Amino acid sequence: MPKTMIEPFRIKSVEPIKMTTREQRVKLLEVAKLNVFLLRAEDVLLDWLTDSGTGAMSANQWAAIMQGDESYAGARSYYRLLDVIQDITGMKHFVPTHQGRAAEKVLFTAVCKKGDMVINNCHFDTTRGNLEFNGVEAVDLVIPEGLQPALVHPFKGNIDLQKVEDTLKKHGDRIPFGMLTITNNTGGGQPVSMANIRAYSQLLKKYGKPLIMDVCRFSENAMFIKMREEGYQHKPVKEIVQEMFSYADGATMSAKKDGMVNIGGFIVLRDDTWMTAVKEMLILWEGFPTYGGLAGRDLDALAVGLMEGMDEDYLRYRLRTAEYLGEKLDAAGIGFVKPTGGHAVYIDAKSVLPNMPLEHYPAWSLCNALYLEGGIRGVEIGSVMFGKHLDDGTETYHSMELVRLAFPRRMYTQSHFDYAAEAIAEVKAKAHLVKGVKIAKQSKYLRHFTAEFAWA
Ligand code: F0G
Question: What pLDDT score does 298 carry?
C-alpha cells in the first residue's frame, strides 16, 4: 500500500493562478503600502490569509444550490438545513445568520448586559469585540500549555478547570454563560478534548451556568479527538460531534469554516428561555428567522457542506496537510506553534528573523518577505495586530510574533505545500536581507487591516 496520502477529491473546475515574478511583487507590495491586506487577490499565488469562506464547494453543494427555495418565510431550504443541524447538534432551536460574528452579536445582545463577564479558553477577536461592545468583560482561561508555542500537548485548546472554578466562585453573579472555542483559533487552531468539554460543562452546571460553544471548526476538533483521545479511535466522527454538542446548551457557528461554504453562520439553542429575545434581535439585524441573512441556496449548500465536513477521509487529509508543512518547517529549522493545528500553521517569526528588533515588527516583515519570495499571503499575529500606539507616542508590543498560514478547504494540493516550504526556507536562508518596517499611517482600532508602512 503506497504511503503518500492523496487529496481525497479530484478537480472538476479550476481557477488559474496568475504567476508573478519577484520584481513584480516588489512593486505590487509597495503599491499596497507594505500591507498584504491591501493587495489585490489576483496578485497572490497562494492565498493563505484565512480559511474562512475561501474553500472550494463540491459538485453536490453546487447541485444543492439549484434546489434553493428563495421564499421569504418557511422555505424548504430552511427545513432541509434544520434537519441536518438538529441531527448533528441535538438542539431544538436553530436560526441562520449571515456569518459567525452576526451570530455572536445577536446572541450576546439578546442575553448579556453591561457589567457581565464571559469566560472562554480564548475568545476570537470578533467574539471578544462583540462582548466588549456590549460592556461585557471577556476572560481567557486556556491551560498554561496553550500559551507556549514550542510545547507539544495533544489538547492545547483545553480550558483550565481550576481557573474556571475560581472565577465562577469569585464572579459567578456576573457570568451569564461559559464559552468554549472549538478548535481554539487564537491559540493556534488547537483542539479541546472530550474530557475537558465534559468536565467544563459539569462545572458550569454546578454553578447553574449554560455552556455556549463557538463551533466554527467542530469537525476538525472531533477528528483530533478520534486521533488523540483514549476510547474514540473506533467511533465515527459524526458520533464524536454529537457527543461534543451533547454537553452544550447552545452554540454560535461561522459556517465559513467547517460548514464548507463561502458565507453563512447560525445560532443553536437547546431550550426555549433565550429564543424569543434571540429572534427579536435576529429580525432587527439579519432577517426573518427562516433565512436570517442568507439566500435559500446558501442554506442548501450548508446542509450538504456540514455533512461533507465530517467525512473522515477528508478530515484525515485536512489535518495531515498542516502536519506535513510542519514537518518540512521542522527540517528547515523553522519554529512554529506545535503541534500544528487543524486549519493553519503559525510560524514563529523570531525563529526566522532572530536579529530583527521588535520595533521593526518581525512577524509583519516575515509576512512581507513570504509574499516577495513566493507570492504567499499569510497574516501577522504579532505587534501590529495586538500592540498599541499610545497617546504619548510610544508603542506596546505583543508577547508573540507569529505569521498564520491558514488553509482554505479542498483548494490547494501537495505541490503548493512543497512550494511554500521551499519559499519559507529560502527566506530563512536570506534572513539577513529581510527588511523591517515602520508604521507610516494607522487607525485607532484594528490597525492591521488598513495601516500603511515604510521600510525601516
Ligand atoms: N469564532 C472563531 C473561532 C473564528 O475563527 C471566527 C472567524 C469567528 C468566530 C467569526 O466568524 O468570520 O464568520 O464572522 N475567523 C476568521 C479567521 C475570520 O480568519 O480566523 P465570521
Answer: 98
Cβ–ligand 1 contact at 185 (below 6 Å): yes
> From the CA of 124, how far away is ligand 1's center (Å)?
7
What's the whole-number average pLDDT of the chain? 96
Is 110:176 a contact under the CB 8 Å cutoff?
no
How do 376-377 and 46-47 pair as beta strands?
parallel
| Percent of the chain's residues with pLDDT above 90 | 93
Q: What is the pLDDT of residue 315?
A: 98
Domains and CATH numbers, the chain: 22-51+312-455 (3.90.1150.10), 59-308 (3.40.640.10)
CA–centroid distance, 441 to ligand 1, in Å, is: 26
- How many A from CA of 278 to the centre of ligand 1? 20
Using 50, 70 and 90 to split pLDDT, how confident is the model at 391? confident
Nearest CA to 185 out of 400, 382, 380, 404 is that of 404
8 Å CB contact between 10 and 58: no
**Alpha carbons 254 and 54: distance in angstroms, whole number:** 13
Q: How far is the CA of 35 from the centre of ligand 1 (A)?
A: 21
Cell of 386: 495586538
- Structure-block grid coordinates of residue 85: 443541524
C-alpha–C-alpha distance, residues 389 and 394, integer Å: 6
Q: Evaluate if pTM is beyond 0.90.
A: yes
* Measured distance CA(110)–CA(327) in Å, rounded: 45
Encode pLDDT of 229-288 as tens digits: 999 999 999 999 999 999 999 999 999 999 999 999 999 999 999 999 999 999 999 999
Rounded CA separation 291/348 (Å): 42
Average confidence (pLDDT) over 318-344: 96
Q: Which of 347, 319, 318 is nearest to 425 (CA)?
A: 347
Q: Is 130 in the pocket of ligand 1 (CB under 6 A)?
A: no
Give the per-residue pLDDT at 143: 97
Sort 2 into a burial class: Cβ within 10 Å, 0-12 / 13-18 / 19+. exposed
Ligand 1 atom at shortest distance from the alpha carbon of 254: 13
Helix or strand (DSSP H, E) at 219: helix 218-228
To which H or E segment does residue 236 belong? none
Pocket of ligand 1 contains residue 54 by CB under 6 Å: no
Question: Ligand 1 in contact with 101 (CB < 6 A)?
Answer: yes
Integer Rg of the chain from CA: 22
**Do the beta carbons of residue 34 and residue 453 sit within 8 Å?**
yes
What is the three-class DSSP state of 210?
A: coil
* Percentage of the residues of the chain whose pLDDT score is greater than 70: 100
What pairs with residue 213 in β-bridges?
A: 180, 251
